Amino acid sequence: MNRKKQPLYKRIIVKLFGKFYYFYVTNFRRDIMKKSLSLRRGECNHCGVCCKGCPNLLKNNDCKFWYRGNCDNQCLMFPVFPYQIEFNSEDVRNNCGYYWEEKDKSWLSKNKI
Ligand code: SF4
Ligand code: SF4
């Protein structure tokens, strides 16, 4: 899936505020998180690029925490929002098997999600 690179100014804004927003939503606004996840399409193809460099990444590209049944980790839910793919590295943009349909992305952004 080839997704185009976003403009620099937007990437800077997302870099500055994206992580705070994600922390806020996953901890205090689970309703928003669940809505966005319900609109997510596709599936994880285990490419492992979103976990690049993490010491918990196993050789088969699985996360070792999966085997402990600990799925409440923020990064295990990745991606929760379209921006987490679209404003990510080229590897993630091109390889991630998840996506949101355009109509759902507009719904999310209209509702400031
Ligand atoms: S899901 Fe999180 S903890 Fe697991 S390998 Fe990926 S980045 Fe690391
Ligand atoms: S980038 Fe997407 S498809 Fe690849 S391992 Fe991460 S969540 Fe799965």
What does this structure look like?
The chain is 44% helix and 4% strand. With 113 residues, the chain is mainly alpha-helical. It has one domain. The chain has a two-stranded antiparallel sheet. The longest helix is centred in the first third of the chain and has 21 residues, at 8-28. Bound molecules: iron/sulfur cluster (2 copies). One iron/sulfur cluster binds next to α4.
Number of domains: 1
Q: Could you spell the SSE succession in H and E letters? A: HHEHHEH
What is the percentage of strand-forming residues? under 5%
Shape: globular
In angstroms, what is the radius of gyration?
14 Å
Strand order of the largest sheet: 1-2
Structure ligands: iron/sulfur cluster
List how many beta strands DSSP finds.
2
The percent of residues in helical segments reads 40-55%
Report on the biggest sheet. Answer: 2 strands, antiparallel
Number of helices: 5
Poorly predicted regions are: none
Category from helices, strands and their pairing: mainly alpha
Average residue pLDDT: 85
Q: Could you name the key traits of this structure?
A:
2 strands; single chain; mainly alpha; two-stranded antiparallel ribbon; 113 residues; binds iron/sulfur cluster
Layout of SSEs?
Layout: H1 8-28, H2 30-39, E1 41-42, H3 83-86, H4 90-95, E2 98-99, H5 102-110
Antiparallel strand pairs: 1-2
The structure holds iron/sulfur cluster (2 copies).
